Amino acid sequence: MIQRARDVLARTQEADGSWKGDYSGPLFLSPVYVAGLYVMGRAPDTRTREGLLAYLRHHQNADGGWGLDVESPSLVFTTVLNYVTLRLLGIDADDPGLLRARDWFLPRGGPLGSGSWGKFILALLGLYEYDGLAPTPPELWLLPRALPFHPSRLWCHCRMVYLPMGWLYGRRARATETPLLAELRRELYPLPYADVDWKAARNRVAVTDSYTPRSAWLRAVNRVLGIHERFHSRRLRARAMEESLELIRGEDEATHSICIGPINKVLNAVVWHIARPDGPEVRAHLEQLPDYLQRTKEGVTFNGYNSSQLWDTAFAVQALVASGDAQARDTLARAARFLESEQVLGDSPRAARNYRHPSRGGWPFSTRAHGWPISDCTAEALKACLLLEPLGLNRVPRERLAQAVEFILSLQNRDGGWATYERMRGPRWLERLNPSDVFAGIMVDASYVECTSACVQALIAWRRAHPSAPVGRAITRGVDFLRRTQRPDGSWEGAWGVCFSYGTWFAVTGLVAGGVRAGDTALRRAVRFLEDHQREDGSWSETVQSCRERRWVDGPTGHAVTTSWALLSLMAAGEGESEATRRGVSWLRARQDGDGRWPPESRAGVFNRTCAIHYDAYLRVFPLWALAVAGREEHHVLAPFQEGAARRYPETSSLTP
Question: Among 69, 376, 520, 616, which one carries the catalytic annotation?
Answer without folding.
Answer: 376
